[in-house]
Amino acid sequence: MDYKLKGKKVFISGSTSGIGLATAEILINEGAIVIINGRGEKNVTKAVDYLKTKNKSAKISGIAANFSIQEEIQRLIKKLPDLDILINNVGIYNSKSFYEIEDKEWYNQFNVNVMSGVRLSKYFLPKMLKKNWGRIIFISSECAYLVPNDLIPYSMTKASILAVSRGLAQLTKGTNITVNTILPGSTLTQGAKTFLNQKAVEFNKSLNEVEDEFFSKSRGSSLIGRFASVSEVANAIAYLSSPLSSATNGSVLKVDGGSVGGIS
Ligand SMILES: NC(=O)c1ccc[n+]([C@@H]2O[C@H](COP(=O)([O-])OP(=O)(O)OC[C@H]3O[C@@H](n4cnc5c(N)ncnc54)[C@H](OP(=O)(O)O)[C@@H]3O)[C@@H](O)[C@H]2O)c1
User: Fold this and answer.
1) CATH number at residue 124
2) Is residue 208 situated within a structural domain?
3) Among 4, 63, 138, 141, which residue has the fewest nearby CB atoms (within 10 Å)?
């Protein structure tokens, strides 16, 4: 499919693996100029090399910056070129009882998951408004609605992203810029694979049995009853990055396999 992304400059936060890396691969194949990111040089270089082996003519580079550290974000912003597309993908979580979570954990998740996108958007939205074209995409989660008991701070950050994204979209009224949110459900990243493997070993079950049990017990509302692949989510991100999605602004596109439920 031609998403009309040739030559568009894209930055994807937290993209040395998972959904971000899969998004980079699709956008590169569409001819975009992509900059990926992770905390350290080693992973960034490894991911850049991987993407170059997948596409010999890839226009790809990477910048290491840790979104937990404000000075690193300022340094990152100085290194970034003028962007056409900003994908606020970085997200961290910690599965823990509410009673065991210290204040600093709440603040760190908020800082990485919400303020990363706030800070980058504050810098790049005015530039997009000036040239009257741009895409900003936030990555939320089904947890914004489901609020699992062991992921309350994470869910708080993912719900906050919905408000930030909608608010920024309102600032684009009458322009060719759009700001939207992708809301993934449980997605088969390396982290999810490790989780499934650990449970399979712990309970002496097959991977399929563990996956079925997760969906019947923890995501009973899912209509697909399985993890989404990273490319299923990345394809939706590519669509919202594209000029083809120009009438979608201030929206939330769910790629949750129906887990959130309801009709909104
Ligand atoms: N996977 C799911 O089931 C799922 C479901 C719903 C929503 N989401 C959301 O989708 C987004 C992507 O998730 P994912 O599961 O694909 O991620 P992932 O596989 O866990 O990858 C995380 C990425 O973020 C980078 N990263 C982590 N902490 C960082 C920091 N402080 N500063 C900069 N980069 C950092 C990691 O790079 P380094 O390790 O190289 O630093 C890595 O590239 C997140 O916002 C997540 O909340 C995921």
Assistant:
1) 3.40.50.720
2) yes
3) 4
In a domain, 132, yes or no: yes
**Residue at 213: amino acid letter:** E
User: Which tens digit of pLDDT belongs to each residue from 139-190?
Assistant: 999 999 999 999 999 999 999 999 999 999 999 999 999 999 999 999 999 9
Q: In terms of domains, do 142 and 202 share one?
A: no
Name the β-bridge partners of 139.
Answer: 182
Instruction: Give CA–CA dist 4/128, Å, rounded.
Output: 18
Ligand 1: list residues with CB < 6 Å. Answer: 14-20, 37-40, 43, 66-68, 89-92, 112, 139, 141, 184, 186-187, 189-192
Q: Which of 33, 47, 41, 37 is nearest to 83 (CA)?
A: 33
Among residues 171, 167, 169, the alpha carbon closest in space to that of 179 is found at 169
Q: Which domain holds residue 18?
A: 9-186+230-255
pLDDT (tens digit per residue) in 49-85: 999 999 999 999 999 999 999 999 999 999 999 999 9
